[in-house]
Design a protein that fits this description.
With 206 residues, the chain is an alpha/beta fold. Helix content is 30%, strand content 22%. The chain has 6 helices and 11 strands. It has a 6-stranded parallel sheet, with helices on both faces. Helix 3 links the parallel strand 6 and strand 7. The longest helix has 14 residues.
């Protein structure tokens, strides 16, 4: 039976790479995969899922107004779909997460969502909140902090490279604006308003 999956992590954990690999696995077996990505994130060009290691794939765009269930159902009626993959799924709305669960339950198509769990304030994105609540399978993709611990938090940096925890939830950016860290160094960086504690932490923790 089809299931709804949520693969979550901090930034730079290989979410897009994992999505592209999953999509390729279906295509290699002669199956059709449908890939979506958020319209708001155009760092690598509109309608494109790209990974840091150079892999990429065309993708359909979604925004807050996209009717995912009806769009996927129409695609499925025209040509059978064997898997739906959604990148940047933290930007989904509550209604869209429900729609994806309907794709699983009513159309029997597996849906694999990949996204950030929390924002730079340590708070859940809406899409992530409901995926954590409703997904059949939760899978954490891990990356590491400078100290060697698991990085579970994301710091946002200002124009001077200093961390801060106020402002709009969604500001698109890459390594120049965000850095993934462990909880300990997230708290230290916010309290100190500096990355000094992080830059001084280079001893791996086993």
């Amino acid at each position: 039976m089809a299931q709804l999956y949520f693969y979550y992590s901090a930034m730079n954990a290989g979410k897009s790479t994992a999505l592209l690999q999953s999509s390729y696995n279906y295509q290699e077996r002669g199956m059709r995969s449908l890939v979506y990505t958020a319209e708001i994130d155009n760092r690598f060009g509109a309608g494109q899922v790209s990974s840091r290691i150079g892999l990429s794939s065309p993708a359909l765009l979604y925004n807050a107004d996209t009717a995912l269930f009806s769009d996927i159902a129409a695609e499925h009626a025209a040509q059978p779909i064997h898997c739906v993959l959604v990148d940047e799924s933290q930007f989904l709305t509550r209604e869209q997460v429900k729609a994806l669960s309907d794709v699983v339950d009513d159309l029997d198509i597996p849906v694999l969502c990949y996204g950030l769990r929390t924002d730079f304030r340590g708070e859940l994105f809406v899409g992530s909140q409901y995926l954590l609540a409703w997904a059949d399978k939760l899978v954490e993709l891990k990356t590491i902090c400078h100290c060697g611990r698991k990085a579970s938090m994301v710091l946002r940096l200002d124009s001077e490279g200093k961390p801060f925890s106020e402002g709009e939830q969604v500001v698109i950016g890459g390594n120049e604006r965000y850095i993934s860290v462990c909880r300990k160094h997230y708290k230290q960086a916010i309290e100190q308003g500096s990355l000094q504690a992080i830059h001084g932490a280079h001893t791996p923790v086993i």
